[in-house]
Specification:
Helix content of chain A: 10-25%
Number of helices of chain B: 14
Largest sheet of chain B: 10 strands, mixed
Order of helices and strands of chain A: EH
Strand order of the largest sheet of chain B: 13-12-11-10-9-8-5-14-15-16
Radius of gyration of chain B: 23 Å
Largest sheet of chain A: none
Structural class of chain A: little secondary structure
Distance between the termini of chain B: 29 Å
Order of helices and strands of chain B: EEEHEHEEEHEHEHEHHEHEHEHEEEHHHH
Oligomer: heterodimer
Strand content of chain B: 15-25%
Chain lengths: 53, 445
Amino acid sequence: MNKIKTIARPAARKVTGCGECRSTCQSACKTSCTVGNQSCERTGRENDPEKNR
Amino acid sequence: MVHVFENHGQYYIFDSGSSSLHACDEAAARLLAAREGVSSHLPAGGAPALSAEERADYEADFAELKGQGLLFAPETDARPAKSDKVKALCLHICHDCNLRCKYCFADEGAYHAARQFMSFETAKRAIDFLIEHSGERRVLETDFFGGEPLMNFDVVKQTVLYGKEEAAKRGKKFLFTLTTNGLLLKGEIADFLNEEFENVVLSLDGRPEVHDAVRKTANGRGSFDLCFENIREFVKKRGDKKYYVRGTFTAKNLDFSKDVLFLADCGFASISMEPVVTDIPELAIREEHLPRICEEYDVLCGEYLRRWREGRGFGFFHFDIDLEGGPCLSKRVSACGAGNEYFSVLPNGDIYPCHQFAGDAAFRMGSVYGGELDAALRGRFCTSCLFTRKTCDTCFAKYICSGGCSANNYHFNGDIDQPYAITCAMMKKRVECAMHILAEKKKEQ
């Protein structure tokens, strides 16, 4: 490609729906329900055993 | 859904179906913008003058991206996998406040009723309610909210200790959070919060004169000097634990980038700045403010990047989005979770969908003192998701925003599924800034 450069592409967009993620409204600001800056708790725990404690 | 936009002189293509972001030149952006179903936010200008050969080059790039599933990628129509388990409670531990902030949605802590403290008995019932309704979920979240929750610190402390004890018995774990104005945040209280709380949200509006104009004590004095040092000392001792210094901007400080940067200059590394939710005419954010607000996000975006390049970056909640990771699609289409997986509990034990509905009798869902939750109300919130939100289908930011705040939607439009257009406009601008930041950082890493 000459004219366009890819900056970001998701590795694999999962639809796990396991529900282990944090509640959105609780995450920070109490008025802005952004999910784009939340993380997948399941993936986080798989990568960081400390989170399982 | 494809969106093309310009930010700080750079042109981008965002494909929401694949969540991929591409940098391009102006001609590519304008060629795509002319296509049906593509949204755009570009400076004024017409179609590019291209030769047939040049146009073919662009079309070849578009086709290649499409072939890779990174442009015009299909979007999910899978309904979210919502369960009937409860994840989180917001405990209104104190319906009273030691400040009298002009814009307070909670009626200066009282929520349009008598000032009231939650008893430990009610807080215990709430913790029991959450554990009983959490099913197999191991990690439970409890937020202490007010009013000013630290005015009822003894109950906060007892509740945390009780929650930890009960969780341990059942193989669960609580994550505690608390929102405070900082007035009482010192000594034993600060130590306890630093020890036990996973996240603490600290209310400071930024520059002293901005803060003092709206965040006043009961006798009408500005509260900046009373809160600031407590908050700064608390953050110093917090180590690597999570916190947000959270400000509110109003129509009086549309130059709010200065407030964010003031907070960053004070050494706070984790900042959010939210638009006020109020109908007070002189403070409310109105449609005519949007161009100025968008300019301000651009200013903040430029300064955020400049400081990052200089090795003195800071975190800003709305700019720190993760396009390549983040939550799964089911989460992204689930909406905010209020009224289904998340509830507010008032000092008397009454349950509401969230703190913003607290005290509105039409939204009382039950009580921690027994009985079933209102099935019809819960069903209404449970079925609400990105696909029921009325303007989200044509928005590029939908999988990042998840449909906005149900309470804002209801309070401004009378319908939890009718997104509030002013909030939507700000969200889109912030997302564009966040994408520009991501692109610039990637360029230099």
